[in-house]
Amino acid sequence: MPAAGTPSLPEQPFDRKAPAMSRDLPVMVGTCRTEQSGLMGRDPVWDTLDDGELKKRLDGLQRGQGEALFATYRRLYPKAADNEIFFMAATDRSYFLDSTILAGLRADAGGGKTYMYNFYRPTPVNGGRYFVPHAEEIPFVFDSLAKGAVITGPPTAEAQKLADQVSALWANFARNGVPSAPGVPAWTPYDSARRPTMIIDDVSRMENDPRSEQRRLMLSYGSQQEAYGRA
């Protein structure tokens, strides 16, 4: 695992400045909507979670904030099941927050453009209980739905259309540094003021500062990389 202070990683990436070694390179940064469901969601307990247990588990994400997190996410997602609320909150506290910090640092430093995405297309696998888990976008990126059916579910015409678009976005980014694809809106580079983000779904769209309230709430607790990412 890379360690800060070595030739391959001279500085800690979250030290309030973008690494100079990659300043001029275009970079794509993104997360899935419920990254943590793929890492934490195999236990059957998630299928019978109630409000009381959810509050306890949310308190484990940020000590003393279980009630506040529960109130915020229940208000924002009144129809969501308790397991989905936990996976969203756990993802926002970690993957999502830190990706926005990283993208903002790079964008503000100038140099190569930074492109942010959020992958929202849910998987039907296991009755949909994982929502949009870690690595869900990968079979779409590599246009390998048949081989990735265990993650994405059986290939469908709609899924293949999205795979055609997503694989083109990545291929064009690799080719010329700008992600683009037929049928997908023009992808605006990231900046820390508007925070334009490509929401990748069956119908993709650009959105400024998605999940902004959740991002600001988690930011008030600080980056998990700053808290736990150091030796």
- By DSSP, the count of extended strands is 4
What structural class do helix, strand and pairing data support?
alpha/beta
Strand order of the largest sheet: 1-2-3-4
Oligomer: single chain
Write down the Rg.
18 Å
Number of helices: 9
Assign an overall shape.
globular
* Unreliable parts: none
Largest sheet descriptor: 4 strands, mixed
Element-level helix/strand string: EHHHHEHHHEEHH
Distance between the termini: 12 Å
Helix content: 40-55%
SS strand fraction = 5-15%
What is the arithmetic mean of pLDDT? 92
List the SSEs and their pairings:
Elements lengths: L26 E6 L2 H6 L10 H11 L4 H11 L5 H27 L5 E6 L18 H4 L7 H4 L4 H20 L19 E5 L4 E4 L3 H8 L4 H5 L3
Parallel strand pairs: 1-2, 2-3
Antiparallel strand pairs: 3-4
Give a written overview of the molecule.
The radius of gyration is 18 Å and the shape is globular. A hairpin with a 4-residue loop joins strand 3 (196-200) and strand 4 (205-208). It has a four-stranded mixed beta sheet, covered by helices on one side. It is α/β, with parallel strands linked by helices. It has a domain at 20-140 and 186-224. The chain contains nine helices and four strands. The model has no long low-confidence stretch (mean pLDDT 92). The protein is 42% helix and 9% strand. The protein has helices at 35-40, 51-61, 66-76, 82-108, 138-141, 149-152, 157-176, 212-219, 224-228; strands at residues 27-32, 114-119, 196-200, 205-208. The longest helix is centred in the middle third of the chain and has 27 residues, at 82-108. Helix 2 crosses helix 3 and helix 2 packs parallel to helix 4.
